[in-house]
Each structure stands twice: as C-alpha cells, then as structure tokens.
Amino acid sequence: MVNGELNRLSDSAVEIAFSGDLPADFLVGAPVDVNIVPATNRRKKLLIADMDSTIINVECIDELADYAGVKDEVVEITERALHGKLNFDEALNERVALLKGMSESVLEQCYTERVSLNPGAKTLVQTMNKFGAMTALVSGGFVFFASRVALEAGFKVSQANRLIFEDGALTGKVGMPILGQESKLISLNALCESYGCTPADVVAVGDGANDRSMVEAAGLGVAYHARPALADIADARLFHSDLTALLALQGIPESDYA
Q1: What is the pLDDT along the chain (258 residues), one digit of tens a residue?
Q2: CA-CA distance, 94 to 99, in Å (whole number)?
Q3: Nearest-CA neighbor of 50 among 215, 229, 258?
Q4: CB burial class (10 A; 0-12, 13-18, 19+) of residue 155?
Q5: Dihedral (C-alpha) 75, 79, 85, 91: value to the nearest 10 degrees?
Q6: Rounded-to-integer distance, Cα 127 and Cα 114, Å
Q7: Which of 17, 27, 48, 96 falls 20 to 30 Å from 197 in CA-CA distance?
Q8: φ, ψ for residue 191 (rounded to 5)?
Q9: How far apart are the two ends of the chain, measured CA to CA in Å?
C-alpha cells in the first residue's frame, strides 16, 4: 500500500514510499520508467559504469569499423555479443582483426567526430564525486577512448582493453588479458576492497551481456537502454530516462546535483 506522498526529486523523477505490492497494472504502457528500490542503503559509495552505449552514445568499435569500411560485419558481431550469443573475448578478437592496418590517427578522428557523453552522464559522475563516492569507468572497449571519456565525465579511475599498434597502425590484436564480463566483476570487488565498502554499497550500470556479472553483484544494478540479456536480471531498468535517473534511484534530488 502507498503510505507516503509523492516527492518530486527533479523535473523528470518522482519517488513514492510504499509497502506491500504495487498493482499489477501500475503505470503499464506509460512512457516512464518505474522501478522499486529498498528504502535502506539507497545512497551508494561506488559507481561502476560500462562505457559504450552507456556513458557514451556509440559502440566505439562499430564506429571505427565504419571508417574501415567493415561496419556491417562488425555491428553484427557486436550485437551477438551484447545479446550474450557470442563469447566476448572471441567477439572482440574477431572484430579488432578486421581493423588491422588502421592508422592511429583515425581513432582520434573517431573520438572527435562520433563520441559524446550520453545525457546526464557528467552530472551523474560529478554528483557521485561530490558526495565522496568512488567513480570507476570499466569498459570492454579501448583505453584510447576510455581515458578520454573518463576525463571528460569526471571518473576517478578507468580501465579498458589495450589496442596494439606498430608503426602507427593497428596490428589487429588486443593486449592480454582481455577485460570482459568476469574482469568487470573482479574490478568491482577490487574497488570495494580498496575503498572499504561492499558490493551492497555499489551502483553498477551497463547495457549488454558483458555487464551481467557486475550488475548482478551490485547492491543496485541498473540496465540502461539495455538488451534483454542484461535487462532481465537488473534491479532497475531505464528505457526512457537519462543517466541522472541513477541519482533519483538513490533518492538524490536535483537540488543536490553537482
């Protein structure tokens, strides 16, 4: 039963305190995201986020493939991996091999022309920083992009895969070990240990199957415009909202945004 008044957190987010079960048809069909979170331990101490199609607007490897003239082939592999139908390590190696010979300068061009932060990303990260949280960008993408995105958004740390170059061109190989699904979970646990918190104190966000383990482990696991492979197991699902919704899920009002 609803036992609290509607509390507006921002122009796009409200919270309602309740106990018991919501009606089965509660806001069904409405173009809004409805999620239920526990009233206890809402504010998290660690934000861990995927990069491609989560913090930024594109899959970087797909955009690089467009410059190389092999986008259709790479996108097909990317989609299979994001839906959990293909092993991530195999998918990454297969896609990077198709980029062999690409000039390093094309990566800079791609970043400048194609990559931008998703709506609410910078506010999310900097507000978490404001409240003393650890913020980590942990990506199955590439260090070249992750380091730049982390700086732009304000993440305190970033991790990603390393492309190998020779004479200013891609060799078609990725540095080992590959940062994939299990590596993201390892990163989450290592960050908890170093920061002195537990997975219950973590909010994790991603969009694909590669994010399943960290999203499942986090106290608040969020699927952002995600494929069913992730959305089906997440604590919260966002299909209409921007990334400031992660602040609303923690009960943080817009008046406290950084």
Answers
A1: 445 578 899 999 999 888 777 666 666 667 889 898 999 999 999 999 999 999 999 999 999 999 999 999 999 998 888 888 888 999 999 999 999 999 999 999 999 999 999 999 999 999 999 999 999 999 999 999 999 999 999 999 999 999 999 999 999 999 999 999 999 999 999 999 999 999 999 999 999 999 999 999 999 999 999 999 999 999 999 999 999 999 999 999 999 999
A2: 9
A3: 215
A4: buried
A5: 40
A6: 26
A7: 17
A8: -65, -40
A9: 34
- Cα 80 from Cα 88, distance rounded (Å): 9
Question: In the chain, which ranges are E strands?
Answer: 7-10, 13-15, 46-49, 134-142, 157-161, 163-166, 169-174, 202-206, 220-224, 236-238
CA angle in degrees (0–180, nearest 5) for 115-72-98: 80
Q: pTM, whole model, 2 decimals?
A: 0.93
Both tokens assigned to 197:
């918190």
C-alpha span between 228 and 132 (Å, rounded): 32
Catalytic residue ranges: 50, 52
Token output for 67: 């410059």
Question: Hey, what domains does the chain have and what are their CATH numbers?
Answer: 46-57+117-256 (3.40.50.1000)
